[in-house]
Amino acid sequence: MTAEDLQDIITAGLACEHIALEGDGRHWFATIVSPAFEGKRLIQRHQLVYATLGQKMHTDEVHALSMKTYTPAEWAAQQA
User: Fold this and answer.
1) For the segment 11-66, what is each residue's pLDDT rounded down to a tens digit?
2) Is 59 in a helix, a strand, or coil?
3) What long-range pairs does 8-15 form, CB within 8 A, spacing at least 24?
């Protein structure tokens, strides 16, 4: 799986204002900014992202996904 493939899958299921992916095809690190994260705890944010991947996590197409998740306001503060 390429970074573009993974990005397409995530953005098809989750409205993202920003997404950056680094990885080797199986192990990934993602930075994801989405308004869908508003009012959600960290685990709930991760569950939203994992839900977009569906069976790809279970079939080992994506072996590992580490992520940082931000609301647009949190991202803006992070960039300042």
Assistant:
1) 999 999 999 999 998 889 999 999 999 999 999 999 999 999 988 877 877 888 99
2) coil
3) 9/52, 9/53, 9/56, 10/49, 10/52, 10/53, 12/52, 13/51, 13/52, 14/48, 14/49, 14/52
**20 bridge partner residues:** 31
Nearest CA to 78 out of 20, 15, 9 is that of: 20
What pTM does this model have?
0.91
Please report, as a single letter, which amino acid is at residue 40. K
Burial class (CB in 10 A: 0-12, 13-18, 19+), 38: exposed
Question: Three-state DSSP class for 5?
Answer: helix
Alpha helices in 1-80 (DSSP H): 3-13, 42-53, 55-58, 72-79
In this structure, what token pair is assigned to residue 41?
């705890």
